[in-house]
Design a protein that fits this description.
heterodimer; A: mainly beta; five-stranded mixed sheet; four-stranded antiparallel sheet; globular; B: Cytochrome Bc1 Complex, Chain D, domain 2; Cytochrome Bc1 Complex, Chain D, domain 2; SH3 type barrels; 3 domains; five-stranded antiparallel sheet; two-stranded antiparallel sheet
Amino acid sequence: MVLAALVATVSAQAPYERLLKADSEPQNWLTYAGSYKSHRYSALDQINRKNVSSLKLAWAYQIQRAGIVETSPLVVDGVMYMTEPPSTVTAIDVRSGRPIWTYSPNIPTDVIVIGSPPVNRGVAILDDMVYVGTVHGHLIALDSKSGVVRWDIAVGDNKSGYYLTLAPLALDGKIVVGVSGAETGIRGFIDAYDAKTGRLAWRTYTIPAPGEPGFETWGKGSGWQTGGGSTWLTGSFDPELNLLYWATGNPAPDWNADNRPGDNLYTDSVLAIDPANGKIKWHFQFTPEDVHDWDSNETMVLFEAQIGGRERKLLAQANRNGFYYVLDRATGEFLTGVPYAKQTWADGLDAKGRPMRKKGIAPSIEGTLVFPNIGGAANWFSPSYSPQTKLFYQAAREMGTVYFKGAADYKPGTAFTGGGGRHIQGDDASGAIRAFDATTGKMKWEFPLLSPGYTSLLSTAGGLVFGGSEEGNFFALDAETGKPLWDTQVGGAVRGIPMSYAVDGKQYVAIAAGFTLFVFSL
Amino acid sequence: MRLALCSSVLLTLALATPKPSAAQSATDVAEGKKLFGGLCVTCHGFDGAGGAGPPLNRPRLLSAPDDTALRAIIADGIPNKGMPRVRRVTDDEMRQLVAYVRSIGKVARTPVRGDAPRGGQLYAKLGCSGCHIINGAGGSLGPELTNIGVLRGPDYLRQAVLEPAARLPKDNLAIPARGYNEFLPVTVVLRDGAEVRGIRLNEDVFTIQLRDASGKFHSVRKSDAVAIRKETGASLMPSYANRLVGGEIDDLVAYLSRLGGAL
């Protein structure tokens, strides 16, 4: 009783009001992508074009269990919250680089993680709790000061293949998560939970049931029950329009559409959702009748620009399928769609943004070569948008895949993919970091990468774009020209997501690569 | 003692190829052949005769001494050796693939023509050990050939001798990474005009590492170069097409095909 009263009088560390105004405190990084607009942009400019060549290692933290680190750390008032594979959360004192607490859930040894490596992309913070999704399909709320469990609920049944890798998104009193598992034929959904209690507030399925709108796009069979439509990447939020934007993934089985003829709504789409009740206000589908596994789970950047003399509220995404899209985020109206990487599957997009598919691009028994590759021209790794340059920065993967079609037998919790692919890789593939005019998709510059990778980008007010490579390069480019200004070799593939923070008046840039989190400063 | 006898019998049974019913087996082999055609021939060649990857048409596979190991390789690949998991396969597909791979191991192969000992003499006369190591002896500029007879089939070896630039090795070395041409000739022109030509050892976005024909190592920052020419379609190994007549080529291939132990 006394303890409860004590807790009540202490003000919460990260209330919703702080998350709403995250841009106003660039020394902290309060949500997965920096703010709800998902710019992954830092307003800090202490590190800039003139001095970045002196950047050096400030400290490093090495993860406890080997695995791929895809974390986007948060920093709140001098404490960093990062995640390690598979689903561990560690709080670190950024002044010393020393861990303060760490929490690892009990993951059963027979956990089912089919469709991605067992990774985690970060936590959400709200008030005094930190929230993590796990590879065994749970959402766990931890006390932010101690890492002790406040509540732990199963979001989806891991025995059917549901699991979580994404950073949850904290809204006002709610924690929103999506699920992974289309490669095991799950029926995807987006969930919102009461942040304090873990009680389910609403669930929105991405695959309609009989009678629901969109069901007619699944043909006559039972394909909808194992339809996929995973929701495995953190969405974006516009508090003024009060719309939550969440992307969906591939239909199942990935490479064999025999039992799911039709557009397969709402796979490979963006859904604009009312955060109060989960209702879908509008949707846009990027890749109808997908047979290439081109999930639309890429970051959606919210920005404003003039189009036709009028200020518009926009949503941009460099989609897995090789096209860069700009939509009106109030209505879902398609405005622009242009290729940003080599693609050989569509003659373009029609006036409504629907792809005009070429013939002969479907997977086959003997294999069909198509660009982009299975992993896409882009994937989960973050783009960045700079309000300073008005450029959209994206790492592109230039690689084709020979796509195979195969049998697909559904058994809960087992691979239900119906084929696969062989990449045309090595010297026959490459990558690039590209800067587009955000409104038109017209490329302003590109910086070549040796290979297609999974590098996320961070742009800063110091006029820089930070990125990495599969070969372990971590570097800074001039945000206006793409000219490399600084680079270092960190010794492992850069799969982490960069962010920047400041403490005691000094700016830092953090990036996970290999088995280590590296933090750089002047 | 009884226990030991039982387990040795069991061990023998486990090592022997399992025998499903004849009808089921024939269908599995036929279906496995179709799957193999799509997923495996690119590297392992038609009928498993080998290509960029090892031949599979032998009774004993080094990395797959039993069917459990073979299933594991098909399911997960062999990390760092260039064998990927091509795609997930269903239980039926796995059984079919295993049945087919074992079936081609039982078919009597066309014996490699040529006189292996004469081939060994040719190898010495041509000076191949200037660039190749066999059982610890020789120069290290080119690929090691100690086990080449197990790793490659005779057709591949013939092409390597006659047209070495036609297909550079891939997926044999952990460095550079999977899919990259190994022993790729690269010419770098530095800002002062100096030229370095060598085989690429590794590369990243900002740097490239070469070894030239004299064995000297070069570490190059790409920003120090005015040109970097990757010579796909070239090889530092010369072609021996004009230095060997038909019978000699057969002998050399027969010698190389024996390297790596009894089949």
